[in-house]
Amino acid sequence: MNLEKLFNPKSIAVIGASRDKKSVGYGILKNLKCGGFFKCRFNRPFRGKIFAVNPNAKKILGFQCYGKVTDIPFDVDLAIICVPSKIVKKVAYDCVEKEVGSVIIISAGFSETGKAGRELEEEIISLFKKKKIPVLGPNCLGLIRPSSNLNATFSRTMPPKGHVSFITQSGALADSVIDWAIVNDYGFSNIVSCGNQAYIEIHHLVQWAAKDKETKAIALYIESLKDGRKFVECVKKINKPIVVLKAGKTFTGKKAVSSHTGSLAGDYDVYKAAFKQFGIIEVETIDELFDIAKVVAEQPKCKNEIAIVTNGGGCGVVAADHCAKLGVNLVELKEKTIKKLDESGEMHPAYSKRNPLDLIGDALPKRYEVAINTLLSEEYIHGLIVIQTLQTMTDSLGDAKVIVKAKKRFKEKPIICAFLGGKFTEKGVAYLKRNNVPVYDNLKKAVMAISALIELNNRN
Amino acid sequence: MILNFEDTKRLIESYNIKFCKTEFAKDKKGIIHAAKKIGFPVVLKIVSQKIVHKTDFGGVKLNLKNENELIEAYNEILKSISKRLIDGFLVQKMLEGVELIIGAKQDEQFGPIVLFGAGGIFVELIKDFSIRIAPINKNEAMKMIKEIKSYPILRGARKGIYVDIEKLAKIISSVSKLICENEIRELDLNPIIANGENIVVVDARVIV
Q1: Total of domains in chain B
Q2: Contact at 8 Å (CB) between B102 and B200?
Q3: Among residues A152, A398, B202, B205, which is most buried (max CB within 10 A)?
Q4: Which residues in chain B are contacts of A271 at CB distance < 8 A?
C-alpha cells in the first residue's frame, strides 16, 4: 500500500472544518495552520496548501471555505474527515469523486460501537478500496510528522523532531505522550493513531515506517492486531528495531477449551511468542516503550559481554542483580585488563579488580576515564554500564565529559549511564543527553537498555 | 469433532512420528488378547469422545504386569466410569522416559502455531512450555526446546534420562508442518515419552 500522500501530502482538505473553537474540525485546521493549538517551540506550520470544507461558513482561520471537496480547484493529496459519522458516507462519495490521494477519518461512531457501526464502516471503506485510496482510521487522532511540518491531528502541540515512529491504537495516549515528549525533549519521526484499522492496518504502518528515512526505530502500542499472520510476515522482512507494548494480556477464555494446547496457548501467550520469534522487543510499561525505542534507535547493538563501572559498590551489586534477571552477561575481567588498570596508577588501592568494577567513592573523572577506556579497548567487552553516585568530590559534569569522549572513540560499543541523584547530577545528565548518551536515574532502566541492545543483536 | 483413533494414528505416522504400539479393544476378551499380542507390561486406557482428562476419572491404568492385574484394572475402570462414556479401550506397551507434550492449534490472530513443553497429566499445572508461529524449521524448534525450564531434565540432569534433542526438534518441526498442511483446529500429542532416541507418542487428540 502506498502511503506517500498520507505522510508527505502537498495539499490537505479539512472536511468538517469548524468555527467552534472547542470542536475537532477547528483544532485540526489550527494545527495545520500553526503546527499546534497551543504555543510550543516545536510547532511548525504546514507549508503546503490547506483547504477548509464547510458549506455553512465563508472563512475559518483565514481560509476560504468550500461547500464540498469537489469544489476545490486543486488536487487534494490528503482529505481529513471530521464530520459526524452519519455524514461520513456522503463525504466519502465526494472524496472518491475528487480522487483524493489519501484519507484520514477522525470521526468516531463506527465498528467500535457495534453492528450498525461496523456495517457503515465497511460500506464506506469499500468505496475507497475500489479506488485504492488509503484510509487511516476511522476513530483516530490522525498523524503527526514533524519532519514534514505536518500536524494532522487535534493534539495540543507538535512534539520535537526525532527518529522514533510511534504507532498507537490509542489516540488519547498519543496526546499525553506529546506533552511528555516536549518536557523530555524526546523526538519523533512520526506519531500515527491507527484507530479502527478499517483499511490501513498496523502492519501497513510498520512497513511504511521501515522504509521511512526519518525513522530509526518503531514503537508500537497494540491492543489487538487485525491480522497477526500478516503482521509477522511483514515484520520478518524489516530490519529496523521494533519495540512493543501489548495491552490486554489477560486471557479471555471465550471458548470451551478441548485440548491441552488450547488451554496453554492463550491469546497473549501467542502474541508473546510471536514477538520473541520475530525479534520484536516487548516491554511492560509506557515509560519503557519510549526509553527502549530511543536506545535502539540511537545506540549500536552489542554482543552479550558487558562490564559495569561504578563508584559505589552497592549500586554495582544491584545492577548486577538486574543483569542476572534479564540475562545480561557480565564478563569476567581478564588478568591482562587488571594489570593495565593497576599500571595506570589511577586506581584506588581498594578498587574491586573485578566486574562490576568498583572505582571507590572518591573516583574523579580521570579514574573513570582510565577505567572506561581500558575496558572498552578490550575485544572481549562489548558494552558498558557506567554508574555514578554522588560524594562530596564527585564531579558529575566532568564524568559526563569523559564518557562522551569515550563514546566518540568507541563508536561500535554502547555506553549506558545511570547517574543516581537529582539536583547535583543535573548538569552531567544534561551534557550526556545533549550528546546522545542514554542516561537514567535508575539502575534497572540502564540494565534494560543494554539488554535491549543485546536482544537486537541476537535477532536473526 | 475429535478424530477417531485410527485416523489420528495414521495422520501422525504419515509425518514420520512414531506412535506407541497400541491395540484397540471393545471388551474384556479383546483387551486380554491385545495385551498378549503387545506383551506385558501394558497400559490400559479408555477411549472417550467426552472425557479430556482421562486420568481424573480413573480411566488410565499403568504398568499392568500380567493378565490378573489387567483384569483387575479393567474392573476398576468400569466401577468409576459409566459405560456409556466409554467408546472402547486402548492397550499400549508400558514405556519409561520423560513425558513431553507437542501441540498445535489454529490461533485466531496468528493462524497455525506449535507448542512444546513438559508434558504428562500435570501439563496445565506446570505450565512449562514454548510457542512458535508455524511452520518452523529444526533450528527454531531447537530454540523452543532450550527455552523451557525443564530443559536440563532432557539433558539427563541428576543421572536421569537423556533425550535426543536433535530428533525431538525434527518432530516439533514436523508437527508445525502438520498443522499448516491439514484442516485441523487443535492437536495434542500428550504425553510423548522420550528416552534416548526413542521418542514415542503415547496419546493424541486431534480436533478437526
Answers
A1: 2
A2: no
A3: A152
A4: 109-110
